[in-house]
Amino acid sequence: MRPPQDTEEQFRQLVEGVKDYSIFMLDPEGRVVSWTKAAEKITGYTGAEILGQHFSCFYERGDVVSGHPAEVLSLAASTGRCAEQGWRVRKDGSRFWAEVLVTPMYDAAGKLRGFSKITRDITERMLVERELKDARERAEEANQAKSDFLMSISHEIRTPMNAILGMSDLLSETQLDEEQRRYVQVFRRAGGNLLTLINDLLDISKIETGNLQLEQTEFELNEIVDQSVELVASRAQAKGIALVPHVSPDLHGYYFGDPTRLRQVLINLLGNAVKFTESGKVSLVVQAARTPEGADALEFEVSDSGIGISHDKLETIFEKFKQGDSSTTRKYGGTGLGLAISRRIVEQMGGRLSVTSQVGRGSSFRFTLSLQPVPNRPSRGTEHPQDLQGHRVLIVDDDSTNRLILRETLVSWGLKTSEFSSMGDALEQLRQMPCDLCAYSLVIVDRRMRVMDGFEGAARIRALHPDLPVIMLSSDHHAADEFHRGDHLLAGYALRPVSHADLLQMVCKAILRAPAPVEPVRRQPTRSLRILIAEDSTDNRLLIQMYMKGSAHDLTFVEHGGEAVERYNSAQLDGEFDSEFDVILMDIQMPVMDGLTATRAIRASESKRAGNRHVAGHVTIIALSANASSKDVSACLDAGCDVHLSKPISKHRLLTAIEEWAHEKPAAKSRFAFGRIEAQDDDGIQALVPEFLAGRRRELPQLREWLANGDFQRIRDTGHNLKGNGAPYGFPELTAIGACLQDQATAANTDGANIDALRQGIDQLEEFMLAVQVQ
Hints:
By secondary structure, the protein is of the alpha/beta class. The protein is built from 25 helices and 26 strands. The strands form seven sheets. A five-stranded antiparallel β-sheet has the order 2-1-5-4-3, with helices on both faces. α7 crosses α11 (338-348), α22 runs antiparallel to α25 (752-771) and α23 runs antiparallel to α24.
């Protein structure tokens, strides 16, 4: 066959060869003037039947009546094209889902000649996509239903567990013989394990439904490491395992991130390491690193000398409900959720949790996070008295890792160090130094060393240099009693792992004969409190009553929120409102009226009477809830609760919360009368006080700017820092002001009452800074 010579004929053959698309040519009014063979197949019409017909015959009747076909041509003519999808009708009345493109055609003079209309039958694709969408929606609904079910189960389990664990705590405070005490420990431990399982299931459910939210707040790196290590230290000590944390001293002190979730991951990894290690040590190392993209990052590595993991199980262990093999589940316990949760949390933080391991030799879990450092914010561990500068410390320990950690920590505080791996070598050097010319201000020794142990070494050191203080550290939990028997030889002693704050405290006390800054001790309630308890559970009412046994508090019980509101509003004194309650313990889920509704009603009553949450008449409301999610906490705070406690609630937690929140807040005072406040050099930190106060003065204009802009998060963070640092520098008033600012900013809305309360707190801070003087 001869090849076509005419260009138009060549183009027609090309178009006819397209089998999946039907191509129509329409005149300016929309009548069909030509089409391809594929159009006959898609629509069921022959060319003779359709030529001259209006293209609206392919539309459903409703579209024709609404004038949609004319709209398509108008849009194509005005914009150059009209693309759409929708149902179209064949000759036999059946429907197909079409993808349509209509474009205008013009002659050389620019006059509209008609339209081209390209149609493709995508019914099969649409049905597959719809099935996938329906399947995805069903899966999401199933995940949400599972999440709701777990939340409901969590609430139903936490409520009786509150009574079980609470009563076990109370029982442990009574006179028990050894067998009874073991029984109590068993069901306390079993209850704790059940709560851990509940929390793990809730976490994995949040992750799967995409509801796990991460915070972005300031946190101190050393503090997170210390807290994580502290929570697993007793288990490590009970097994005789050395627990060795080390944070590189060249890292920043504070970072932005989610401290709660980071702590959760570290506790999971450390807990697993201790669980699967029978002897040796578990270490946590945090150091500077780089991401694959070259950004600054932190690398966290938890290593152990435990049983190890076979190569074929290195990825399986990160799956839900999986451990290295089924025998480990029976021998060591656990649900197999911890690592799955940890990996997902790390991934959500932008990192990747991985593991290397060798069976019988141990494992190393590591992850890298790109966390933004907080500028100009050193760690509290570096805020040490300047008087430490230049003092020399002798370190005696046969473990090179322990020596490294001590050396880097002490050097970061401005101290100089010398090291020996044996007590004999250390004593030999000390013998060569006359008592009045000793080069050292302090000796730090390990309890257990080869050849000569720490106690014998301490006795010989004191014999050579009676005034040279000795601090002893030990990884053996049995050493606690020995410490007390030998404390006449020692200036301080501690079980490893020892936090930076505790070590600094001991070093300052030994060298400067004065303690380092410490957190303030909470004061005990100075008066009997009137407490209204809204709780529908008989068991929990009894538990709270037993918790309060022996206190001077006056308790009133009601069974639902409606009774609580009625009882609160009934208080009258000489015709004026005067709440008869200092504190309300408000259960959240109750019949008749729930706790959130009751709290809103009480706060509404306060607003009508005072217009300010933090003036006389404000009653502290503590939410007691079996729901522990961040959403539930926010709901409680938004309703007007001052603080949220999730069940089960221990006696200590409840009494501490009442103690913290029942006292008058500083901002409750309408006038301030600090007088002249002097900072005395009682703790060896006088040199640090001026800069500390200068920093607080610099924060005042920032606080007012943040308040004007509604930036409550920054006010909350500043209040939190003020709360933690005020008393250690000798200013408990600043701690109280900071606590108030933190609380008000946390619960802040945009109403005038809260803004007024925050403004009043900032005013009080300014009054204090004007009054304070350094002696």
